Amino acid sequence: MTWFAVDKNGLGKLVERKGKSFVLFELIQNAWDESTTVVTASLETIPGRPRARLTIEDDSPDGFADLRHAYTLFAESKKKSDATKRGRFNLGEKLVLSLCDEATIVSTSGGVRFDPSGRHIVRQRRDTGSRFEAIIRLTRDEVNEILESVQQLRPPAHVVTSINGQVLKNEPPIKEVQASLPTEIADAEGVVRRSNRKTTIRIYEPKLAVGWIYEMGIPIVETGDRFDVDIAQKVPMSLDRDNVTPKFLQQVRTIVRNATASLLTKEESAAEWVTSAAGSGDITRDAIKKVLEDRFDPEPLSFDPSDMEANDVAASMGRRPVSGGAMPKGMWAQARRHGVIKPAGQVFPTRKPYSDDGRPENVIAETDWSAGMHRIAEFSQWAAHTALGIEIDVKMTRAGKYFAACYGQRELTFNLDSLGGEKWFDGNPAVIVDLVIHELGHEIESNHLSDRYYKALTMIAGKLFINSDGAPTLKG
Predict the structure, then answer these.
(1) Segment of 31-35, 122-126, 373-377, 399-403 carrying the highest mean pLDDT
(2) Distance between CA atoms of residues 204 and 155, nearest Å
(3) CA torsion, points 301, 305, 309, 311, in degrees to nearest 10?
């Protein structure tokens, strides 16, 4: 005994909510799933009525193996266990029939007619293929909308598909790759379950202004991305078949980004879908490298909080260290994992003259200073007091040829290795004053490139000039 019935008009009202473009899609995809080489469709308005005549015909040798599937909802479908077939729940024809005033299906196994009085067996059969003919509730605008949307279809290469005499074209993909993606396959008991399966992904220039995800030639989800992506197996979707999960979308975007790394312009690399793909653990090194090159620099650097001066040096050479907020967390993780972005301090290292306990390296005892070294130390302390009103310590060190002098924690350190030894302190006074002012400027600002540092230098120089009469002698 039948447990329940389906109200045709009620089903039709639910179907109309999703738009009517699917009408042709459902019937055409069913024909593509068979051993078909030719599919012919026509959709024409009926003058004076909000109705249209719809006809779909194919040349499949087998036709409908079981004609009851044309009118039985959720009957077991042989397609459920085949990931490369588009059908799942034997819904397609029934959804279309819910919008029809009358319809006739004739196939190799017989025929059936639907009209206001019910369902009737037709004493006809075909040698090959099937023919669906119906009067369907469609306005002229809806017919035009359907005929326009049908141009999105991407027919299989071996199936000639035409609508109202116009053969649908499917341009070759710009890229074709193999990858594993989730799909839906029925198990031995007919229960549809999700599993990963290797399949073909074809990437195309979009048919419309923005990209779509396709399932074996049928557009199913608008992504707004740069490309159309056709997946050659069932795509996991909701029962309403109106969207994919965010995780699945990111997987697809990552595959596409990896395959098209060299094809996008700098402007296109800034798109949201590229950002999503770049945060995936499956992004390739070449792909994430190209994203960073397009968005930042050919050899991108990250801002290095452990070496502030290195950031300044990089900026002075036209490089822009990338700060934390410039990329999402996932993209940062993949950029670092693939080693395509380095801290500024690794590329432009600056010598750190202080050891772990905060003291200068290789400090020279004052008892070993020359007279010139004492004289310049005294001048430096006078300059700090006169210009800045502070008292400083002065150290002398030998620390390799990495820096001439450095200033920090009110301590000025001169490096004899870089300065050329003790003789520097008896050399050109202008050079000496220049270095002392340069270092004392860091009492106010550490960034060499900032306007604040520039103003600190001019202020120090001005005060020293005004008080120059009391300056210690710079020459012995």
Answers:
(1) 373-377
(2) 13
(3) 20
For residue 249, is pLDDT > 90? Answer: yes
Q: Using the Cα atoms of residue 350, residue 354, residue 357 and residue 358 in order, give the sign of their dihedral.
A: negative
Q: Which amino acid is at 303?
A: F
Token pair for 197: 């399966």
Sign of torsion over alpha carbons 237, 241, 245, 248: positive
The answer to whether the CB of 335 falls within 8 A of the CB of 341 is yes
Q: Which residues contact 121 (CB under 8 A, 6 or more apart)?
A: 110, 111, 112, 113
Q: Which residues pair with 394 in a beta bridge?
A: 412
Residue 412's CB: how many other CB atoms inside 10 A? 24
Q: DSSP 3-state assignment of 167? A: strand
3-state secondary structure 105-160: EEECCEEEEEECCEEEEECCCCCCCCEEEEEEECCHHHHHHHHHHHHHCCCCCCCE
* Residue closest to 102 by CA, chosen among 92, 113, 94, 91: 113
Assigned token pair, 371: 């007279």
Q: Are 208 and 221 in contact (CB under 8 A)?
A: no
Q: Is 215 helix (H, G, I), strand (E, B) or coil?
A: strand
Among the listed residues 311, 335, 329, the one whose alpha carbon sits nearest the alpha carbon of residue 321: 311
What does DSSP say about strands 160-163 and 38-45: parallel, antiparallel, or unpaired? Answer: parallel
Angle CA 390–394–397, to nearest 5: 155
pLDDT at position 73 is 43
Q: State how far the Cα of 261 lies from the Cα of 220, in Å rounded to an integer.
A: 25
448, burial (CB in 10 Å: exposed 0-12, middle 13-18, buried 19+): middle
Give tens-digit pLDDT for 385-417. 999 999 999 999 998 776 788 888 899 999 999
What pLDDT, on the 0 to 100 scale, is given for residue 9? 72
Task: Count other Cβ atoms within 10 Å, centred on residue 47.
Answer: 7
Q: Tell me, what amino acid is at 226?
A: R
- 199-244 pLDDT, tens digit per residue, is 999 999 999 989 999 999 999 999 999 999 999 999 988 766 678 9
pLDDT single digits (tens) 88-97: 545 667 778 8
Closest-CA residue to 206 (of 223, 228, 224)? 228
Q: Is 250 helix (H, G, I), strand (E, B) or coil?
A: helix
Name the burial class of residue 28, with classes exposed (0-12), middle (13-18) and buried (19+) by CB atoms within 10 angstroms of its CB.
buried
